[in-house]
Structure formats: structure tokens, C-alpha cells
Amino acid sequence: MSEVTDILSALRTGRLSLEQAAERMRRVDWRHPRPAPGLGPRDPEPTVPNSFEEVVLAYSRHELTDAQYAVLLDAATGGDRDGAGGAGG
């Protein structure tokens, strides 16, 4: 399991608040997916551990709400819209 999947799991189970998850996302050493060698055009690309792709996949599986996804996206990209201070938007 990667650090990102650990954070997402902790958020889903309530071990981390959204604000805590966002703070941890800010500190992730993000990896960038690269095309896998030897795959055919119809072969699925493997998920790269500790890439934001893990967050996108969790969102597509409806494991994150729109609001949670937006906060985690901002945290991962250095944005400052997480709402932790009550300043929404």
C-alpha cells in the first residue's frame, strides 16, 4: 500500500479528518505516471503508487465526495482552498 492509499483509507474510515488528510497530501512525494513499456494499445496502464492517479481512481469509484476531491486536489497541487480556516473559496 502507498502513502496516498493509506491517507485515503484513513479519511474514509474517519481516522483522519479532511483537513488532516489535506495536510498529509501536501507532504506526499508525488510520483508522475510514465507509460509502461511493452503494453499494447488496449492494455490498461498500471496505477503508479504515490501518484495523484490514486486519488482520481478513488473519486471515480465514488469513495470521495466532490468537496473532498477538490480539497485533496488543492492540497496536492499547492492550492489554498481547503477551508481549514473557514474561508471557503
Key phrases:
89 residues, mainly alpha, elongated, disordered C terminus
* Shape type: elongated
Q: How many DSSP-defined strands? A: 0
Q: Strand content of the residues, in percent?
A: under 5%
What's the helix count?
A: 4
**Alpha-carbon Rg, integer:** 14 Å
What is the H/E order?
A: HHHH
What is the residue-averaged pLDDT?
Answer: 83
Major sheet details:
none
How far is it from the N-terminal to the C-terminal residue, by CA?
33 Å
Q: What percent of residues adopt helix (DSSP H or I)?
A: 40-55%
Q: Helix/strand/pairing class, anyone?
A: mainly alpha
Q: Uncertain spans, ≥5 residues at pLDDT below 50? A: 82-89
Describe, in plain words, how this protein is organized in 3D.
With 89 residues, the protein is mostly helical. It has a domain at 3-29 and 48-77. The chain has helices at residues 3-13, 18-26, 53-60, 66-77. Helix 1 packs antiparallel against helix 2 (18-26) and helix 2 runs parallel beside helix 4. The model is unreliable at 82-89 (pLDDT under 50).
